[in-house]
Amino acid sequence: MAGAGRHRTGRGSGPMTERERARLDQPRDLRRTLRPRRDPDPERFGRFAEGAARFLGTATFIAWMTMFIAAWLAWNIVAPPSWRFDPYPFIFLTLMLSLQASYAAPLILLAQNRQEARDRITAEQDRDAASRAHADMEFLTREVASLRLSLGEVATRDFLRGELRSLVAEMKEPADDTSDAPH
């Protein structure tokens, strides 16, 4: 009993994984083990959806679709009866257009959701930039006000000229007073 609990149904020996033990009561799906499952890449599919939605919203698509439907209708009305593949109620055409619409609507919604997510991120970045700009403007406004107050305390050129003139006048007065005095 050395190998008890370690035997894999006909696949050699070795410890069984928890997943294998949990599924002993179910048949194994061999396709699952032979071919790894790939999940679709959401980014790649999203880019495809945006491209499809972008094309579906163009005049080129409308023109091609109009020409296709006109050719379809013309063929099934004008062609000899034995060559017509979709007679008057045009059920096959209706089915194809419904199928196209059933794929177009989700692709357009997916593209809109991706665009909305990008717009939301852009709006958040714009809000952050505006908030930083507002804070910077408030800071600069306070700095300018502080500089104005500081400049109010600094002597201006006219004030200094006036002070110098009064000092020169004061210096001349004692000199004039001493020259007038008798010796």
Q: Short summary of the structure?
A:
The protein has 183 residues and is mainly alpha-helical. 72% of the residues lie in helices and 2% in strands. Strand 1 (7-8) and strand 2 (12-13) form a beta hairpin.
Can you offer a commentary on this structure?
There is one protein chain. By secondary structure, this protein is mainly alpha-helical. It has a domain at 42-131. It contains 6 helices and 2 strands. It has helices at 18-22, 30-34, 42-56, 59-78, 91-153, 157-180; strands at residues 7-8, 12-13. The chain has a two-stranded antiparallel ribbon.
Core attributes:
72% helix; 183 residues; disordered N terminus; two-stranded antiparallel sheet; 2 strands
